[in-house]
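Hi Y.,

Following your request, here is the sequence exactly as I used it, all 167 residues.
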Amino acid sequence: MVRTSTVGVHLPASGLDIFGVLRKMNKRQLYYQVLNFAMIVSSALMIWKGLIVLTGSDSPIVVVLSGSMEPAFHRGDLLFLTNFREDPIRAGEIVVFKVEGRDIPIVHRVIKVHEKDNGDIKFLTKGDNNEVDDRGFMVTIIVNDYPKFKYALLGVMGAYVLLKRES
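Below is the corresponding structure, written out as tokens. Let me know if you'd prefer a different format.
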């Protein structure tokens, strides 16, 4: 007499129910996939939070979004940031900063450090590939944030051009 056995599959007494077996296997596979995905996401989050603690930066990795720093950095480059407050920032160093009210970080080089008597420090920055420094950022921000100002400025410039031609 030969004995046969099935490993891992229990057939119901009523006969072969392959769809029931498949449903059970699919649920197990689905649970496995969900658990695997959750482990990957939690591992990535732990690594990210660990980098935040190690670097002292809220955003330890940024992507370069423009060509303003070429040839030093190109669009799409990933930058690993640190924020050690003991080290003073000097002219010539590359910094990453955010303009108030904007979410996109800017990567530029410090060209001048302004230290005031009360201890306040301000930096003048410029992209290596830009013709002018970043003082013009404020005008761009005002024009983008306040459309009425933009139209008023365009009106004044248009009137100036018209009046200048007449003279």
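Confidence is low (pLDDT under 50) at residues 1-8.

Thanks again,
Q.
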